[in-house]
């Protein structure tokens, strides 16, 4: 059920659109309607990230997005693995980036303008994306990475098709109600940084989130579970969340995001229902813990984790989940399988 009153949009070829072309069409034919706004600044993220990402896509290049929260050695490994030759940075990051490229001497750095330079009212020269969906849907575009909490961060290359998952959902007429329906034509606040998917953001104090949600006039918020839990510990935080139409929390970098379905069990808000199109199964490991495994389907357009691994029929996530005691089909994650194995080895 992908919003029968909203989708499909008249004249739109959902599931066969390059994201860059969508932005171009919006800019040229709907200039009066605001699409992206910056009501507040949370941590280091700003619109430079999507601006540069779109620019790189138009040039048919690849953009690596390393997080400044990982070590210099870890960044150097990522740059080397992806054969990165140029590091874009604002002037405020010069010292930090210089320390990284000392470990990767083949990488050069250049200074990009500050965000205000991109926001000038004068119209910029038009440079349109020249390729169609069938020509470039599998082109690499953005390189994210895992958090590196248990090992070195692992770079993960997302293609144009992987980044267009939302459009693929809209092209699936029997898809269950999901985040796409909740985000449609709503003002969305996203606390997650652009550095990796979904990323981690501990740079804003709790009162910043309360203030942003209170005065940002948002209908929907996409937050990390940790932020939601912290907000729920205070009256003001709970009140800010209650004013939203819906609250979402993020998925996973390695698999490109989990396709979940909305459910109506409010008391089980921290449990997840997977879409029938997600290819999700649970394999019992021990006690009441099951590992989430994705199984390829013949029409696996919505299973982005298989796109970089065309030879795989199954994608084990190593995430252990537990099913709700009363509501079958609803599960929540506990932790990684290799952490349990390590703890058992220590016992």
From TrEMBL:
Entry-linked InterPro entries: Adenylate-forming_Reductase, ANL_N_sf
Entry keyword Isomerase: no
Entry keyword set: Phosphopantetheine, Phosphoprotein
Ubl conjugation is among the record's keywords: no
Domain of life: Eukaryota
SUPFAM superfamilies: Acetyl-CoA synthetase-like
Name the record gives this protein: AMP-dependent synthetase/ligase domain-containing protein
Organism from which the protein derives: Penicillium vulpinum
Taxonomic classification: Eukaryota, Fungi, Dikarya, Ascomycota, Pezizomycotina
